[in-house]
Design a protein that fits this description.
5-stranded parallel sheet, 7-stranded parallel sheet, alpha/beta, 34% helix, 12 helices
Length: 359
């Protein structure tokens, strides 16, 4: 669904009148038109069908029908991009990811009720997320494959050519993604054969408190040892680390087949932290041996400069194609800048990574 010529039109769903008013005010101050509100999931379904907005902001815990059930109904009855508003707590991560599995396109932490110095940043993040969600291609975002329930021990049939080069052991892969990325990251990592012995770093734009749960999902759905990255740790072949929300992930050095990782604070870059550019650029400087970077679906230009640094350093670069990208923003800019060696659909990226190692 595309936005109208007059700008982005939104429906706000929350059982708290105060929260609905707060979200409406933040969005309208940011140039988003709020065309209607709803106080629960059942009302949301009717309101979306009536007003046909570009995007819906959806609370999770509500009476009569919760946000997860409402997302599933909306995606069936009146397909519309839904942005989940999740309480900023790790215990809410499971239900937030379930909402993504049911069809929500992204999520953002719910703004607090108090007025603080952080409010301008909260407003900017909310408005950016709403505008990004509004342009998601639902025909792509809706194609969610059922992930395996057990950790795979070998490459999935048809996803990887069987021959893994001996030189792959100890090679490094950096994957960057934003809106629409979690499901694609799961597919790519799940398609990498454990016997390749790769060292994998994942930068998914995601708030603090959710990246640890995302790492657990990836650990259960791939043959790699996946965890949220810790400052100062070293990782070797067969291990993958997810950049924590709220920190930039830096590759410090590469010795004896192991990468040393550092977490850095500092300002947001391109409005996000972790930033893909930081991890890719540091990998270009520190990694010895084969290095492949992958830029997946997402709005903006994070990762473009990082891919450029990797290409200059002699590494391989892969971008997701337009047809399978929920938002063809970051990969498009990398392709237009000439930084992508290969442009591949989501289902072929894992095989493409192994192919770069053969070459």
């Amino acid at each position: 669904m595309s936005t109208t010529a007059g700008g982005t039109r939104a429906v706000v769903v929350d059982d708290s009148r105060f929260m609905r008013t707060l979200i409406r005010n933040l969005l309208e101050e940011g140039g988003v038109e709020v065309v209607a509100e709803a106080a629960d999931g059942e009302a949301a379904i009717e309101t979306v069908a009536e007003h046909m907005p570009d995007v819906v902001t959806m609370d999770i815990e509500m009476p009569r029908m919760n946000g997860i059930e409402a997302v599933e109904r909306i995606m069936t009855d009146s397909p519309t991009p839904v942005l989940m508003l999740s309480a900023h707590a790790e215990e809410n991560a499971d239900v937030t990811f379930e909402a993504l599995d049911r069809g929500a396109v992204d999520f953002v932490t719910k703004p607090g009720g108090e007025v603080t110095s952080e409010m301008p940043r909260v407003k900017r993040e909310l408005v950016d997320k709403v505008q990004s969600a509004a342009v998601v291609d639902l025909s792509v975002a809706g194609r969610r494959s059922s992930p395996p329930t057990a950790r795979p021990q070998a490459a999935t049939p048809g996803s990887i050519a069987p021959a893994v080069p001996a030189s792959a052991d100890g090679a490094t892969v950096v994957i960057g993604a934003s809106t629409g990325g979690p499901a694609v990251v799961e597919g790519v990592l799940g398609g990498l054969p454990p016997e390749a012995g790769l060292r994998v770093l994942i930068v998914q734009h995601m708030p603090e408190g959710f990246t640890a749960r995302f790492a657990k999902r990836l650990d259960a759905r791939s043959g790699y040892d996946v965890a949220e990255a810790r400052d100062g740790e070293r990782i070797g072949a067969g291990q993958a680390r997810v950049a924590p929300g709220g920190s930039h992930l830096v590759v410090d050095d590469d010795r004896a087949g192991q990468l040393r990782l550092r977490l850095r604070g500092g300002d947001r870059i391109h409005g996000v932290k972790p930033a893909i550019d930081v991890t890719m650029s540091s990998a270009a400087e520190a990694v010895r041996g084969p290095l492949t970077t992958v830029l997946l679906t997402g709005m903006g230009r994070d990762g473009v400069e990082g891919m450029s640094a990797v290409k200059r350093a002699g590494g391989a670069t892969v971008a997701q194609d337009e047809r399978t990208s929920a938002i063809f923003g970051m990969p498009k800019r990398a392709i237009q800048a000439g930084h992508a060696d290969e442009v591949l659909p989501a289902g072929e990226i894992a095989e493409g990574i192994v192919a770069t190692l053969r070459n």
